Amino acid sequence: MERLPGGRRPRLVSSLGLGRGAAGLARPRPPRRAENCFVPISEIIAVEETEFNKKQRNIGRWQKMAKLHAFTVYYVKKARNHRWRCSNVTFWCVDEHLCNQWIQALKELLEMQKSRPKQLLVYINPYGGKRQGKRIYEQKVAPLFSLASISTDVVITEHANHAKDNLFEVNIYKYDGVVCVGGDGMFSEVMHGLIGRMQKDSGIDQNNPKASLVQCNIRIGIIPAGSTDCICYSTVGISDPVTSALHIIVGDCQPLDVSSVHHNNTFLKYSVSLLGYGFYGDILKDSEKKRWMGPMRYDYSGFKTFLSHHYYEGTIAYQPAKHTHGSPRDKESCRTGCCICKESEKQLAEQQKECGLNHEEGEEEWKFIKGKFLAINAVSMSCACPRSPKGLSPAAHLADGSADLILVRKCSRFDFLRYLLRHTNQDDQFDFPFVDVYRVKSFQFTSKLSEDNESNVMDIGKKRFGQFCRDHPACCCNIVNSTWNCDGETLDSSAIEVRVHCQLMKLFARGIEEKCKDEAAYSQSSIEQLL
Ligand SMILES: Nc1ncnc2c1ncn2[C@@H]1O[C@H](COP(=O)(O)OP(=O)(O)OP(=O)(O)O)[C@@H](O)[C@H]1O
Ligand SMILES: CCCCCCCCCCCCC/C=C/[C@@H](O)[C@H](CO)NC(C)=O
Ligand SMILES: [Ca+2]
């Protein structure tokens, strides 16, 4: 419990009345017996003086009082499944001075919450998901931002890359954060704009795959209004615009790993969720032609791709992530305050102290795998989403500086279906003889088709394993390449070089909270309680 100035503990119930209200509205009712509960200051959204009208004054025993003074506290109420709502409680009393003292004290405490944003730049994709982005923002998010006294500059995008290009032009440094209203693709645009801008302003060449990139400290908030909303779901635990808006308001901060993708010393894209070749690449390629179907396009293309059952040949080289203690087969998942991610943060700070910005990754051990794959999935986070609540790699970490590389080798349709179904249930997705998973800090892929002409993997292979090339002579097989799905965008090249940049950016989120803790603490009755 916070103290009032002067050291007094706030004891509101003895002198003030208590009324509960639905989200956004103060609806004073006769006082109830106080339940002892607790709302941390960090989860108060706003405090406002409340005007009583005549009708409200005429309730029960309060009728006798000449004049009432009141204030309303708006706060985060945690509901089931990581959902947050704005609730409020109104306190009232006859002593105007006491009432004002409370308002003043609470406002001062809110002012001290330095991580809260005051000014945000908002990009809305009106065409993402079910085309509800504008309505969602106007009806559900803007009123909350205004309640929390956050000022906003809003841009409704007019074409793809509008947000990204705009971020290279505006004075981003005057904002405390950038909000994107849309799906994973919209987030990707904003992320590319922000990271790209930071590198440009710091003179870093993004085309150099070995460059140490400058961290981006301007947080991004995601208001989910897309088709998959995997990044929002994996970092908050639910795809819900009001929950996300409240995480932005309270100023949460979640660092995030970002993978850079290059081809022949040319920068292609960044990825924070899924880099998928084979199954997920083919789904995306097919679904892009069916955007008019909205989120349903993924089901349609998913079914089609499953039936086609294509496999692809190629070689993967990877560097294991030795710096982190976790493994993709861990039973524990990354949660708010994750120790493994904190350890990586410490290591990163030490590295930056030792080497400054010129730190280059050491040439560590490379491992090679070649084969026929139905899917190659590299995920920097779990990739949990409403379709797959545990995600493609349930134990992947948001900010540990690694990605989980999942190789699904050629197998029967039936086995592949069994594997896919495990995306949706509690069983271990990696417990199949045709599935391998590695925690990596970088990897390269070359398809069999391009191996002979352009492969970096082969260069490394030639250097280290003389027999590697002889085992894999040029061939005339009639094979085609798949496409890489990079956070929902296709890549032009199949041969890629990927490196994970630990905690390169930050989100307005706090990771997924442990269910037992918050649900046990907050689910008993409605707990609009004492501060
Ligand atoms: N005004 C616009 N017109 C056309 N395309 C746009 C516009 N604004 C943004 N885009 C592009 O639309 C693409 C898809 O948007 P978004 O990610 O919001 O929705 P989605 O693809 O339905 O959802 P998800 O990415 O979660 O599957 C983004 O890559 C973005 O570049
Ligand atoms: C026949 C049963 C099939 C069940 C398969 C369910 C699998 C759902 C898995 C969804 C994967 C989500 C990974 C996230 C990818 C996003 O980056 C991307 C852009 O939004 N979305 C997709 C679908 O590529
Ligand atoms: Ca990671």
Protein model, in words:
Residues 115-265 form the DAGKc domain. It holds the Pfam family PH_CERK. With 531 residues, the chain is of the alpha+beta class. 29% of the residues lie in helices and 25% in strands. Among the domains are: 5-113, PH-domain like (Roll), CATH 2.30.29; 260-500, Tumour Suppressor Smad4 (Sandwich). The strands form three sheets. Strands 9, 10, 11, 12, 13, 14, 15, 16, 17 and 18 form a ten-stranded antiparallel β-sheet that branches. A four-stranded antiparallel β-sheet has the order 1-4-3-2. The N and C termini lie close together (6 Å). Mean pLDDT is 86; it is low at 1-31, 461-478 and 520-531. The structure holds adenosine-5'-triphosphate, ligand LY3EYVUO and calcium ion. The site of calcium ion has 8 residues, from loops.
Element layout with pairings:
Elements: H1 12-15, E1 17-21, E2 44-50, H2 54-57, E3 69-78, E4 84-93, H3 96-111, E5 119-124, H4 133-147, E6 151-156, H5 162-167, E7 177-182, H6 184-201, E8 219-224, H7 230-236, H8 241-249, E9 254-263, E10 266-271, E11 274-278, H9 279-288, H10 296-308, E12 312-320, H11 339-355, E13 367-379, E14 403-409, H12 413-421, E15 435-447, H13 448-454, H14 456-464, H15 467-470, E16 485-486, E17 489-490, E18 496-507, H16 515-522
Parallel strand pairs: 5-6, 5-7, 7-8
Antiparallel strand pairs: 1-4, 2-3, 3-4, 9-10, 9-18, 11-13, 11-16, 12-13, 12-15, 13-14, 14-15, 15-18, 16-17
Helix pairs in contact: 4-8, 9-10
The protein binds adenosine-5'-triphosphate (ATP), ligand LY3EYVUO and calcium ion (CA).
